[in-house]
TrEMBL record:
Family per similarity comment: Belongs to the AB hydrolase superfamily. AB hydrolase 2 family.
Species this chain originates from: Belnapia mucosa
Protein's UniProt name: Prolyl oligopeptidase family serine peptidase
UniProt entry tagged with the keyword Cytoplasm: no
Keyword line: Hydrolase
Transmembrane segments: none
Domain annotation Phospholipase/carboxylesterase/thioesterase: ranges: 15-203
Amino acid sequence: MAGLDGPRFGAAPGAARQLVVVLHGLGADGEDLIGLAPDWAAALPEAAFVAPHAPQPCDMAPYGRQWFSLQDRSPDVMAGGVRRAAAALGPLIDAELARFGLPAEALALAGFSQGAMMALFLGLRRQPAPAAILAYSGALLGAEALATEALGRPPVLLVHGEADDVVPVAASRAAERALRAAGIPVEALYRPGLTHGIDGPGLAAGARTLARAFAAPAGA
């Protein structure tokens, strides 16, 4: 990862009061999710949005990017992959906050599918914690280490389609249980009939979560 690179939307450096980093899923790139920014910007008109492209070419398709390989989906291998990717992405988010002149608390993370795995893993291990984490159709990797590794308890929104045939809804239900057990505030929205995607109610729930998270000045 040489640096954050991907589509952007919203406030420019010097004008932004919040930064929302949006992390795409396996086999996609930043263009796949930056389209969410205009809807969320209605709730956060002073926010900057960036949807970085993941660092690796997807090894399961002839196109798109990945944060880490999913060729081997055993828990230990996936946890190692997300840990390495998060260790590289964290400093780049810090650099992006510095570029906008924002404190660490002015950050929110959002992700879809593999990007949701990234947002949850990294966001729960940042200090200071982000203002909010939005995780769509994802999973909580490294849940067994939360008790010792979580550095904050930011509010988390989980959204998942009950008909998801790519990442089963059971993954978010398990994440909800683990987060509650760790004392992390979590709101979960399970969408009947929705497959692997984001629908209008899920998008609106994200906007509400972001608006609540930044209702008070950063650091207050």
